[in-house]
C-alpha cells in the first residue's frame, strides 16, 4: 500500500470493494494488512456478508461504521449514451483497481 501515498498526494477518498475472500487477496492476507486497510480507508464495500466476515476474521473488532454490504446487481440500460461524458456533467471520475494474485 505504500502507506496510502496516492491518497495523500491526490487528496482523495480511498474506497475498497471486496468481491472475493480478502484472506486470499494480495495486500490483505494477514491480520496486520487488513487492520491497516480498515483504519485507513474511507469506505469498505463487500459483495456479501460472508466476504465481510472473512475480512474481520482475526481483527480486534467485528465491524466498523465505514463498512457496507453492496449486493451485486445493476439496472438494465436499454441504450448506452453515445457520448457518456456529456451526459454526466460535473460528475466524479471513478477508477476501479483489481489486484490479481
What can be said about this structure in brief?
The chain is α/β, with parallel strands linked by helices. It is built from four helices and three strands. It has a three-stranded parallel beta sheet with strand order 1-2-3.
Average pLDDT for all residues: 76
Give me the side-by-side strand order of the main sheet: 1-2-3
**Discrete helix count:** 4
State the secondary-structure class.
Answer: alpha/beta
Label the overall shape: globular
End-to-end CA span? 15 Å
Low-confidence stretches: none
- Succession of helices and strands: HEHEHEH
Q: Give the radius of gyration.
A: 16 Å
Counted beta strands: 3
Strand content: 5-15%
Helix fraction by DSSP (H/I, runs of at least 4) = 25-40%
The description of the largest β-sheet is: 3 strands, parallel
What report would you give on this structure?
This protein is an alpha/beta fold. The protein has a domain of 64 residues. 28% of the residues lie in helices and 11% in strands. The protein is built from four helices and three strands. Strands 1-2-3 form a three-stranded parallel sheet. The longest helix has 10 residues. The protein is globular, with a radius of gyration of 16 Å. The relative contact order is 0.17. The mean pLDDT is 76.
Amino acid at each position: 500500500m505504500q502507506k496510502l501515498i496516492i491518497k495523500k498526494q491526490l487528496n482523495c477518498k480511498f474506497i475498497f470493494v471486496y468481491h472475493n475472500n480478502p484472506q486470499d487477496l494480495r495486500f490483505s492476507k494477514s491480520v496486520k494488512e487488513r487492520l491497516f486497510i480498515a483504519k485507513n480507508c474511507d469506505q469498505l464495500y463487500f459483495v456479501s456478508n460472508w466476504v465481510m466476515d472473512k475480512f474481520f476474521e482475526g481483527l480486534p473488532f467485528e465491524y466498523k461504521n465505514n463498512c457496507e454490504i453492496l449486493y451485486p446487481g445493476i439496472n438494465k440500460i436499454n441504450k448506452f449514451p453515445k457520448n457518456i461524458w456529456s451526459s454526466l456533467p460535473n460528475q466524479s471520475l471513478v477508477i476501479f483497481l483489481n489486484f490479481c494474485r
